[in-house]
Design a protein that fits this description.
alpha/beta; 33% helix; binds NADP nicotinamide-adenine-dinucleotide phosphate; 2 domains; 5-stranded parallel beta sheet
Length: 315
């Protein structure tokens, strides 16, 4: 039986490629921008794309693949894919929810702890020999028991809140409507209300046009001078210019950020700040979770090609 062509776009791990070769006639592309370079006859036969990347996959790219039936995204956030354009063309889109919740929540908590307990500067203090030379480093700030606000109590937001509840924190959240939560969690109907009510605010919204700048200049202004913001969602969810200004002027205590408006060449102003803890978009970046994400991506493609229901459809 002839194998279906699978177009894999993005940088995959060896285990993904091995499995793709086993079940499909594979074509690999480093980036969606290289699509036009694929031989036209081969392009015309592609039914399934395994997509990994943050570059826009829009109508123009879809039109280069006239037989396209399914785009399986590697990641829960599918903001790079124009789902409306896919729908118009009868193309199904899938993502990889839930399998990465734990990792992203772990990183959010880890970043906040690393920031507030000065772990990076303390490690540098030790590495430089300052401990022996100068004595103890400056004192850090207490984390357990503080008030935390989750901006977007979705799948990942909920995992973050559950972890922080174990840190004896007072849990506040903003979602478009109140959720079924443990007793005592406080819902804020507006993002400004949440910002004004917490010492630590963690952004866990989806990315894309609907949430562009959701953490606006006004929301940042509503944060207290001693408040810290963390973002593990997408750089687009925060007004980055307003955030940089607030950090530079020390109008807030600091930020722990895994995502940026432009990646990987983030705004160089971030690198000049001493009140930040920055990560290069590592939320789901463990071997275990990346394996699970790849497996779910391919399970969606296989289900589609076998005429079975998609496991995790977006549209
Ligand atoms: P989710 O369950 O869909 O939750 C997303 C949250 O976004 C929900 O609280 C939802 O609000 C909110 N939201 C959705 N549309 C909105 C709108 N139009 N206006 C305001 N709020 C809106 O998503 P998830 O699985 O938790 O994932 C969240 C995001 O994390 C992903 O989309 C992805 O971009 C990001 N992520 C980052 C990494 C990383 O490496 N840093 C890894 C994985 C995921 P309601 O509560 O009101 O429904």
């Amino acid at each position: 039986m002839m194998q279906s062509i699978l177009l894999a776009i993005g940088a995959y791990n060896d285990w993904d490629i091995l499995d793709m070769h086993a079940g499909f006639d594979l074509t690999q592309l480093a980036s969606v921008s290289d699509l036009a370079m694929v031989d036209m006859a081969r392009r015309a036969a592609v039914k399934a794309v395994a997509y990994k990347g943050h570059k826009p996959f829009g109508a123009a790219e879809m039109d280069l693949l006239p037989a396209l039936e399914v785009i399986a995204n590697y990641g829960v956030g599918y903001d790079a894919i124009d789902v409306a354009a896919a729908k118009q063309r009868g193309v199904r889109v899938t993502n990889t929810p839930d399998v990465l919740n734990d990792d992203v929540a772990d990183l959010a908590v880890g970043m906040l702890l690393a920031f507030t307990r000065n772990m990076m500067t303390n490690a540098e203090w030790l590495a430089r020999g300052d401990w022996a030379e100068k004595g103890d480093p400056p004192l850090a700030r207490k984390f357990s028991g503080a008030r935390v606000g989750i901006m977007g109590l979705g799948r990942i937001g909920r995992e973050i809140a559950d972890r922080l509840a174990a840190f004896k924190m007072e849990i506040h959240y903003h979602s478009r409507s109140a959720k079924d939560t443990p007793e005592g969690w406080v819902w804020h109907p507006t993002p400004e209300g949440l910002a004004a009510s917490c010492d630590y605010m963690v952004v866990a919204l989806i990315g894309g046009k609907q949430t562009e700048g959701y953490v606006s200049r006004d929301v940042i202004a509503a944060m207290g001078a001693d408040a810290v913001i963390a973002n593990i969602s997408r750089g687009s969810t925060i007004d980055e210019e307003a955030l940089l200004e607030a950090l530079e002027a020390k109008r807030i205590r600091g930020a722990a950020l895994d995502v940026f408006r432009v990646e990987p060449q983030l705004d160089p102003r971030f690198q000049k700040l001493s009140n930040v803890f920055l990560q290069p978009h590592q939320g789901s970046a463990t071997i275990e979770t990346r394996k699970a994400m790849g497996a779910l991506q391919r399970a969606n493609i296989r289900a589609h090609l076998a005429g079975e229901p998609l496991l995790t459809p977006v549209n």
